[in-house]
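Hey,

Quick one before I head out. I ran the complex with NAI overnight. Inputs first:
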Amino acid sequence: MASNSDIRNKPETRLFINGKFVESSDKQTFRLVSPSTRELIAEVSEASAQDVNTAVAAAKAAQPAWAALSPPERGACLRKFGDLMRENMKELATLEAISMGRPVRDYIDVYVGARLWDWFSEAGWAIQGSTSLNNPGMVGMTLLQPYGVAAGIIPWNAPMIFFSSKAAPALACGNSIIIKSSEKAPLTSAFLATLIEKSGFPPGVFNILSGHGTVSGATLASHMDVRTLSFTGSTATGRAISIAAAKSNLKNLHLELGGKSPAVVFEDADLEAAAATTQFGIGWNAGQICMGNSRIYVQDTVAEKFVNLFKEKWGSVRMGNPLDPEVGLGPVADSLQYEKVNKYIEIGKSSGAKVVLGGDKPTQSNQLGDGYYVPATIFGEIPEDSKTMKEEVFGPVVCINTFKTEEEVIEKANDTEYGLYAAVFTTNHARALRVAKAIQAGTVGINCSAPTNLPDLPFGGFKSSGVGREGMIHSMRNYLEEKSVMTKL
Ligand code: NAI
Ligand code: MG
């Protein structure tokens, strides 16, 4: 096993195609810069269109033999892969910290990801169609079959979770797969490529590419031989992928997109718990989380108390080097995120919002050097139509507004094109369920919030937050075609 300093000084940066590590066909690389220091960490292979085509061809050739294996034969490779991920937890945490700034303190991604490999390693037996005797003189049955070549395009905010939530079910269902990592966080996916052969996957079944949206992501989205594609990332890119799919082979799409998730806090809630939970819900991963509760509505009668509790909690989180185990707030992922988040902070300030916390460049900048650090920022009394209140900021910024009635807060919570996640805090059970029913979101937490998720429930978005669902059983639907077969008796 490589030592931790080897991992930092010489991480794997090549593409993994047809069971071999290769540089890109045209030798292109892209620069990966540390968000905490702005130093160059690695030059990473940038997959070309030719590399994508080679990977898809290898995946297409390898898939029939993979699908012909029994569930336990495929499952043994998945099980081993999950085990190896866990064994390399420290290395993966280090790579994520240096490439996208995730504090090692909160690095749960490998556990969450490995649990998916465990579960899908046993799931093959559950792939079963149905039968029908309803039609006189006929017997009907359905066959669930893999699509063939699957692709997964993943973002940078929690790569190990998304890598696993796409590759594990696709492979369990007998597809071959190509995962394309994000240009902002390619190192952990490239590292996982070193575990593929050790896990026993035959060459071509499991391929890993790094590169930007254009060329490699777009080439996968428009490829005629990719039959199903699962994407997690921004709504804008989800739209571009939908267009590319429509213009090529109408591949099956699963899209998990952005959010602007509301948390609603009623006056009868346990305010201390609600403040702690929602603070973590936006603070985790520097607010770079699709389901993060970026909008909080608190009932006016308890607003002052709630805001003070929230401020006290977030204000005491240490910001700094993500490799420091005491640090809870690292830098944002890269210069683009830094500019974007600061732009929304400026918009919030100029819209007349009250700055409750942060809102400025870090004051301890001498200790933080040149990193892309954005201090925890709380806006109060922000106009509902401010872009900072409406659009996905994806940074450590929360908007806290007040409401008077249940009816009013439901209307405000739903006044968005997003619908990924929502939370409601109250001790009134009937009210909690009324609000859960009324809110337009794919997931609602009652007295809990992001990133809480139950792995056996479906996860996905209402409205422009996505198409389709992921989850234990639910993910398998994204990787299986259903065929009707009928016999005349
Ligand atoms: P993005 O949506 O552009 O990137 C996500 C993935 O899609 C990356 O692997 C990227 O290379 C790929 N991609 C980009 N353009 C593509 C195309 N035309 N065809 C195929 N693949 C393509 O997100 P980005 O630029 O990294 O971040 C921008 C914003 O997106 C963030 O500020 C945030 O608001 C949002 N975002 C939301 C995420 C979520 O979980 N909902 C995750 C990542 C970003
Ligand atoms: Mg982008």
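The first strand starts at residue 15 and ends at 17.

Talk tomorrow,
K.
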